[in-house]
Design goal:
Elements lengths: L2 E2 L9 E2 L6 H19 L9 H9 L8 H19 L5
Antiparallel strand pairs: 1-2
Length: about 90
């Protein structure tokens, strides 16, 4: 998994994407660009990396048999994850 560079040039902010498949490389580069744009806009903590965002994408709420509880769990997980990525807001 590529890591965010400490001093990103603003283009992609990733290193190590070269060894990935074409589609994976494109995804990682796109996420890197989004991470950099969000950071510049002040909407993302400075220490959040592409790998962190990929972990968030891969996270899934537990499987529940009740659709309403499933939706509530998914919404809560997303809320917690997004709050954790934002800088200094409660």
């Amino acid at each position: 998994m590529p890591r965010q560079r400490a001093g990103t040039d603003g283009a992609t902010g990733t290193e190590g994407a070269e060894g990935e498949s074409g589609a994976t490389r494109e995804l990682l580069l796109a996420v890197g660009q989004l991470v950099e744009q969000a950071r510049v806009a002040g909407e993302l903590r400075a220490d959040v990396t592409v790998a962190d965002v990929m972990l968030v994408i891969a996270a899934a709420p537990p499987r529940l048999t009740d659709p309403e509880r499933q939706e509530a769990a998914a919404e809560r997980l997303l809320e917690v994850l997004l709050r954790g990525l934002r800088p200094g807001r409660d």
